[in-house]
Amino acid sequence: MTTLQLKNIVKRYKSQTVLDDLSLDVADGERLVLFGPSGAGKTVLLRLVAGVIEPDEGRVLIGGEDMTDVDAEHRGVGMAFQNFALFPHMSAFDNIASPLTATRSSKDAIAAGVHKVAKLLKIDHVLSHHPKALSNGQKQRTALARALVGSPPLLLLDDPLRNVDAKLRFEMRLELPRLLAAEGATVVYVTQDYKEAMALGDRIAVMSQGRIRQIGTPQEIYNAPADIEIARLFGDPTINLLDVVPQKSGDGVFVELSNVRVRLADYDGDASGKSCVLGLRPETIVFVDASAPGAIPVTVEAETPLNEKTVTLAMTARGREILVSRPAGTPGPAAGPAHIAVNGAQAFLFDKASGRLLPRADIASKRNGEAA
Amino acid sequence: METTSPIERLLRAVALTLVVVFFMFPIFWIFLMSFQTNETILTIPPSIVFSPTLSNYAALITGKLQTAAGTLDIAFMRNLGNSIFLSVASVAVALVLGVPAAYAFARHKFKGSEDIAFTLLSFRFAPPLLVLLPLTQYFQWLGLSNTYFGLIWVYQLICLPLILWIVRGYFEDISADVEYAYRIAGHSWFATFRKIALPLAGPGIAAAGLLAFIFAWNNFVFALVLASADKQPVTVGALAFVTSSGIQYGQIASAIVLSVTPTLALALYAQRYLVEGLSLGAVKG
Question: Are the Cβ atoms of B186 and A79 closer than 8 angstroms?
Fold first, then answer.
């Protein structure tokens, strides 16, 4: 276990700034997920920590020690690559053993170490194979085993599940947290899959365009996305975003959806009269009877299953599309006219101009409400 | 391949046969000639029925050339030895110098690296005749003319650019991540070069070495001008068969057979690497 600190890292390629004055602290034993679209600079950042790329400016501290000018082989980190980067001319055994041979361990110690981690990752039966003869899943496990075998205090995982099929990815998503916890290492994990990020991260750092846009626990990011883009990246189906102008009236702030007033419990008068974007998670919208209070008339257009959910595309009277999701197997409306109800306490308001989340009156109580 | 009609297959076979005959016939004919006397060779029309003789080979190996004007001493076997020594040594030097250089050019883009690499390649563009005269002068000043050392040095003009450029492409084909992974595992850059880059570029290095060997072996003009008889390779030595009393076709033929045998054998042995090695980028791990 160790800590990692990045201080004001800048990295440019030609005229393009890939990392823009980026600072980051990872605590001892923490699992930090770097999440963001491709081209955000996640991989460059990871390589910079590993020491195979040098920053133009800024410092990299591992365990409090300045490693900026230390060669990769002396940083003592473990890394798994997205494309596995196995040595094609070596057997799986020799691939996994490579961090141990570097430290000139005895033959027995190397064999014991390799077999231990191979068993853990269930690849002990293919150790004599060359990478060419391994399935994608086995390659990925071999790459992971190679990163883990030396018990590095800092583990860098660059989207290790990207190139494996969906079934295997699901399996590994379940298995990895246990594995990483057992390892006890500080982990920086890169992914483009928000579910992976939420499943694996103690904290998630959302990156885009070479900067960290938001950093927080998975719940914080899901329940209080800093801006519209982040709200859109987390959640499947995507969050509903509707242009609204909130109004203050009487005891609170309201928005109008198809002439039905919805009270936004968390917001105060500051938002009123501004051009805003209302964010509604599809799972917070429910179908109700026409007689229910706050029922908004919609037309059900289509329905499609999405994993364990059923997603309905509904159209409001003003022609705005809304996605509603419910657990698969629960009854839903037939095509045609129906009514939905929106929980104003679970809605977000973003400033339309800046895209930033508008400050809410009491975020803490809301988060508890949602987690329940 | 799709199913082919009999006619298509027949045509393909005919075309392949024609190509093979076109390329192999001269070698075949020379091979026959090497077992004939000068008189049989010059018979018109030529015939492939004759009583074979080993006299040509005997003359080459003993170094005594029987001509109408008497016995001439030739140094063919020495030439052959020179060819082998010069080519092997040149390729060895070119590999030792060129492979690390190719790695540097492939992995480390430094200021002017492209220019240096291109300058080295341009040695292959310039016709040797262009540099021959100044080279002769320099060699005399430096005392390098008529030395093996000097010849091997000049042969680097032929071998080094070839190896540098072919092997560089091979190193560039190796995913940088694979090398990064080895570095991160705790190995020095030199260990990474030795244990990862070299083995993975192996077929390319073999192909480049073979090509360089063939080019070095075939070189004529450098050896002709910069070395005297006892250091000359077969390409120059073959001139000895053009004697004042006529051209010794039989001996030339057997000399050719002997001199192409090493390269031919090498090429046949390394065929697999050659095809793999020259189709750059087509082979990925």
Answer: no
**Alpha carbon distance A88, A132 (integer Å):** 7
The percentage of residues in chain B with a pLDDT greater than 70, rounded to a whole number, is 91
- Does B45 sit behind a cis peptide bond, omega within 30 degrees of 0 on the bond before it? yes
Q: Does CATH number 3.40.920.10 belong to domain A4-226?
A: no
Domain ranges for chain A: 4-226, 233-371
User: Which residue among A72, A89, A131 places its CB closest to the CB of B184?
Assistant: A72
Q: How many CB atoms lie within 10 A of CB A46?
A: 23
Q: Which of B175, B178, B183 comes nearest A72 by C-beta?
A: B183
Confidence check: pLDDT of B283 > 70: no
Q: Which domains does chain B have, with CATH numbers?
A: 6-73 (no CATH), 76-278 (1.10.3720.10)
Give contacts of B182 with chain A, Cβ < 8 Å. Answer: 87, 98
Strands (E), chain B: 64-67, 70-73, 242-243, 246-247
As a whole number of angstroms, the distance between CA B47 and CA A23 comes to: 87
What distance in Å separates the CA atoms of residue A225 and residue A203, rounded to the nearest whole number? 14
Please give the single-letter amino acid code of residue B34.
Answer: S
- CB neighbour list of residue B46: distance below 8 Å, 6 or more residues apart: none
A192 pLDDT higher than 60: yes
A48-99: pLDDT as tens digits: 999 998 899 999 999 888 989 898 888 989 999 988 899 988 999 999 999 9
Q: Cα dist. A50→A45, A55, A60, B177, B186 in Å? A: 9, 11, 10, 12, 11
Chain A nearest-CA distance from B28, in A, is 41
Query: CA nearest B198 in A: which residue?
Result: A89
B183 touches chain A (CB under 8 A): yes
What element of type H or E holds A323?
strand A321-327
Fold exhibited by the domain A233-371: OB fold (Dihydrolipoamide Acetyltransferase, E2P) (2.40.50)
Interface of B with A in 55-74 (CB under 8 A): none
Q: Is residue B285 less than 8 Å (CB to CB) from chain A? A: yes
Task: Using alpha carbons, list the distances in angstroms from residue A326 to A43, A297, A305.
Answer: 36, 18, 10
Q: In this complex, do A88 and B200 lie within 8 Å of one another by their Cβ atoms?
A: yes
Task: Report in angstroms the alpha-carbon separations of B141 from A3, B138, B230.
Answer: 65, 5, 21
Contacts of B204 in chain A (CB under 8 A): none
The answer to whether A262 and A347 have CB atoms below 8 angstroms apart is yes
Quick: pLDDT tens for A345-357.
888 889 888 888 8
